Amino acid sequence: MEETRGAARKPTIRDVAVAAGVSHGTVSRFLNGGHWVSPQARTAVEEAIQATGYTANHHARSLATGRSNSVAFLLTEPQHLLFADPTFSLLLRGAAEALAERSMTLVLLVAGTDAERANVANFVSAGHVDGVLLISSHESDPLLESLLAAHIPTVSCGLPLGHQTDLPAVSVDESGSARTMTRYLLDQGHTRIATIAGPNDTPGGRYRLVGFREEMGDAFDASLVEHGDYSLESGAAAMTALLARDPNVDAVFAASDLMASGAIGVLRRAGKRVPEDVAVAGFDDSGLAIAHEPPLTTMRQPWDQISAEMVALLLDVIDGGPRRAITLPTQLVIRESA
């Protein structure tokens, strides 16, 4: 008993506030995500936490606030794509890091089948997470309708087709990026430029095709358009169909690096050299592009920034902030494939 009375008292939020020279409320806001905390106050609180040795009691905070202190990373694609498509792992890593900085947990959910969608809808609606980072949404996806109906704070990666005014989103300039790549290929002297677009019910699939068509102008040829699902196999199938229709294609713009890689495999088997006979360009710069042989010319998406902005925007929405749409720029990266 004497040992208990003599034990050092655990530092509290009020101790941190005194050490930082800020209010108790400022420290509380910092611990709950840092919203409306100035950079100076943030630095002071961080230093005070180190100096006092304060450790947050997340269980007690969850009981007091009614929050789980966790966020869902929701992938609405078949499970195998989580590992096959490197873009998803980049977003997952970035979101996990951004939440770890706020002492929050990321919960991975995959909903590629009807049964998985039903399970996810029940899990999220039960309050196991405070909000959802929606990855790779499809137009008319019933799960999105369920999230909206249940008023679950949700932020979409890419413009949520059909719900652009209902849902906050972080996206890149899809059509502008496609125009940039198409203009680059045209300026290189290519005249028979094909495109392998993504699914038309996804923002990348729809708006990258729009940008390509706009930049091609009068030279646009609908017979030089094929659709894939962003996978390696779909890129190969699309390139096979394009060559069957027009063996004189001299450039290909694929809406993902994986589809560009699949197209290159088909071109090589057809005896065509890349880039000497056919230039090939992709989209993403997710790591595959630089390691590919030849290295891929592509549009680089700012993956870390996308993740960080999604997390910050979602926490704002959870705290009652406004719905906003954030559009980020991409960068043309020129390598040997084009």
Shape field: elongated
* Domain count: 3
Query: Poorly predicted ranges (pLDDT <50, ≥5 residues)?
Result: 1-7, 58-65
Q: Kindly report the name of the CATH homologous superfamily of the largest domain.
A: Response regulator
Highlighted features:
338 residues, Rossmann fold, 434 Repressor (Amino-terminal Domain), six-stranded parallel β-sheet, disordered N terminus, alpha/beta
What does it look like?
This protein has 338 residues and is α/β, with parallel strands linked by helices. Helices cover 47% and strands 14% of the residues. Helix 8 (114-125) packs parallel to helix 9 and helix 10 packs parallel to helix 11. It has 3 domains: 2-56, Orthogonal Bundle (434 Repressor (Amino-terminal Domain)); 70-172 and 303-329, Response regulator (Rossmann fold), CATH 3.40.50.2300; 174-300, Rossmann fold, CATH 3.40.50.2300. It is elongated. The longest helix is centred in the last third of the chain and has 16 residues, at 303-318.
